[in-house]
Design a protein that fits this description.
Elements: H1 14-20, H2 23-43, E1 46-48, E2 55-57, E3 64-67, E4 69-72, H3 76-83, H4 89-107, E5 110-112, E6 123-130, E7 154-160
Antiparallel strand pairs: 1-2, 3-4, 5-7, 6-7
The structure holds zinc ion (2 copies).
């Protein structure tokens, strides 16, 4: 059976409203619409990367790193480079911890003291973070040199390609 649907905008539809309202009003209406759409998409499990503005299925493992901000995997290195200097120590350590376990869980990342010569240039990316064991002190409580970071206070998270 053939079914035809003729679209007739109702008298008070957005179509007429749009043409009847001023440009700034239209803009804010559009903004409202976009916001509503984004929340609707979030309900469906589709979320947007705060940096590249692309949409991703949040159920896809490892696609999005969420922690207040939502960042896609591709944007992680840039995002972290610009975000980490703006964070306080406590906040940064918290996010570093999450980021590190997220990268290890979904992207085969490894935490290393130093970047081995042979992996240089072959990694998808590598980021330096505070050593979670000594919390950046390089020493353990007993004054012993931290063996997780060799006393550097920092470790590298290396994500292979
Ligand atoms: Zn992105
Ligand atoms: Zn350490």
């Amino acid at each position: 059976m053939e079914q035809r649907i003729d679209y007739v905008p109702p008298p008070d539809s957005g179509v007429r409203n749009l043409s009847g309202s001023s440009a700034p009003e239209r803009l804010s209406e559009l903004e409202q619409d976009v916001k509503a759409l984004i929340s609707a998409l979030a309900l469906l499990g589709v979320k947007r990367c705060a940096r590249c503005r692309q949409f991703f299925r949040s159920s896809e493992p490892g696609a999005l790193f969420e922690n207040g901000e939502i960042v896609c995997y591709e944007c992680i290195p840039d995002w972290w480079a610009s975000r980490s200097p703006t964070l306080g120590i406590v906040e940064r350590e918290k996010i570093e911890g999450k980021l590190s376990s997220w990268l290890r869980r979904y992207h085969r990342a490894e935490v290393v003291k130093e970047i081995p010569e042979n992996t240089r240039g072959t990694a998808a990316f590598q980021i330096v973070t505070t050593c979670g064991e000594c919390r950046g002190a390089g020493k353990l409580l007993e004054g012993e040199r931290c063996r997780f970071c060799s006393g550097n206070g920092t470790v590298w998270i290396v994500v292979p390609r």
